[in-house]
Amino acid sequence: MLVAVDCIIFGFDGTHLKLLLIQRAFQPEAGNWSLMGGFVQPDETLPKAAARVLKKLTGIADVYLEELSAFSHPERDPIERTLSVPFTALVDIQQYETQITDDYHAGWFDINKYPKLIFDHREMVEKAKARLRYKAAFHPVLFELLPAKFTIPQLLNLYEEVYDISMDKRNFSRKILSMDLLEKLNEKDKGNSKKGAWLYRLNKKKYKANFHKVASIIPNPDIHYS
Question: Could you tell me where the beta strands, DSSP code E, fall in the chain?
Fold first, then answer.
């Protein structure tokens, strides 16, 4: 049995949550859209293999990769019996945009409108989305997708994208500011309007002490994960 790793990279561009994909370079399914995957070498751990594959196929390096779970259906790969262990990462697209190479036509796709994927990669992505929703309901992990300085509308867009819901802007703003996790900066982002929106940053000390407060952001979230 062969052992492989696949990388599920979620990114946020300030408006939309996206998924990084490449075009597969060999048969079967050559030319079709795929997660970044490859076989584990004899001298590698799973995390090291995932980091190597991600850097080789996209150019992205030095990101935290979290193991998801094994996919082991006997017929998941039509050529050879292959067990795959996916890894997930959350990145700020702007931070890693210059790292991405074009060798395998890597591209970002809307998380709710991505193309057909090879093998069981769609199942992997959907399971990773379910875990992201579960974790985001109780921990401020979504801040990892944001730039160091961000606006409340950007944060709102991110939560709406992750949960695929529409949220009341005023209620969201009131809740997030009442948690005392953010620091308001004396700067505005005027990219979308002349008036601009105030910029904030995460207070890391208060974040560690009060991270549990984020559980109140999502009303009755669909957070089932298995």
Answer: 2-12, 17-23, 33-34, 36-39, 66-67, 82-92, 107-110, 150-151, 182-189, 197-202
